[in-house]
Design a protein that fits this description.
Layout lengths: L1 H22 L5 H23 L7 H25 L5 H8 L2 H11 L8 H17 L8 H27 L5 H23 L8 H26 L4 H4 L2 H16 L6 H25 L1
Length: about 290
């Protein structure tokens, strides 16, 4: 069961970057993300109704809901969708894989709950070098691509802050209840943002409708369910290895399905970032073992 669940989250979350790219064909980014989480919240709500799960929230759980709704399902996903209009799905996934490095810095200097051991320091430095390579001046790297990469890094910071917040306040919370309220709040904020800044002249096709449904059902409900089931069975450090596998899956799918290519400097940057994440994550895996 554990290998199946691990492979499932890697494949689904590795493919969501491609699905986002396909779903943006004819659909504005904030509207597409908002519709995704309207559907996902409705499905999670149906699961909670079947389970007859109480929906009362404690003070800590309300903090988690606000964090999820604003930082993850609004800013994080809004920025990722916006970025994928400007850069490839594989490059977006790679930049987002720096999340463990950002989380390590936050837990050291913000919450002071974890120390920075030598492997984490080395991983952070290598990851920064890889990110610098991606931003290295290149004749093919225009302002729009730069903004797309910056938006992805903003998304990554928001996801890292939320993770630290969840560690502080979400110990006893039901993840499905938190996601139900968080997705609902995020969906409302995304749709309001879309109403303000986007035109709703949508060109629906079989591809983008399928992408939105896939992201809602598989990318949100099924993947999160598999993730929560997995972290109950194995150490979270082992689960974090998915941050190395997901970008590789995204790069392969982007190249295979959409013929996405990256330059030699970008390839070096991607490899360096993944090496930095590996240096930071793998020692924790050995300790868990």
């Amino acid at each position: 069961m554990v290998p199946f669940l691990f492979a499932l989250i890697c494949l689904i979350w590795g493919s969501t970057w491609l699905a986002i790219k396909i779903g943006l064909d004819g659909v504005p980014p904030f509207l597409g993300a908002g519709l995704r989480f309207v559907i996902a919240a409705a499905l999670v709500g149906a699961v909670l109704a079947v389970r007859r799960q109480p929906l009362h929230l404690s003070r800590d759980e309300r903090i988690c809901v606000w964090s999820l709704g604003i930082l993850v399902f609004w800013i994080n996903y809004g920025a990722v969708y916006w970025a994928e209009l400007r850069i490839s799905s594989g490059l977006t996934a790679t930049l987002f894989s720096t999340m463990p490095l950002m989380t390590a810095l936050l837990t050291r200097y913000w919450t002071r709950s974890e120390a920075l051991n030598p492997s984490k320091v080395a991983g952070i430095l290598i990851g920064v070098a890889g990110t610098a390579l991606l931003f290295w001046p290149d004749e093919r790297l225009g302002m729009q691509q730069m903004l797309g990469m910056l938006a992805t890094l903003v998304a990554c910071v928001c996801a890292s802050v939320n993770l630290v917040t969840m560690k502080q306040h979400g110990h006893n919370a039901d993840p499905f209840v938190l996601n139900f309220f968080g997705m609902g709040l995020g969906a409302i904020l995304l749709l309001l943002t879309s109403a303000v800044v986007e035109s709703w002249a949508v060109q629906w096709t079989r591809s983008n409708v399928g992408a939105v449904l896939y992201l809602a059902v598989f990318g949100s409900v099924i993947a999160f369910s598999a993730y929560y089931a997995l972290i109950k069975r194995i150490d979270a450090t082992i689960v974090s290895l998915s941050t190395l596998i997901i970008p590789v899956v995204a790069l392969i799918l982007g190249r295979t399905v959409l013929d996405e290519t990256v330059g030699s400097t970008a390839v070096a940057g991607i490899a360096t970032i993944l090496a930095g994440v590996a240096v930071a994550v793998l020692p924790g895996l050995r300790r868990s073992a």
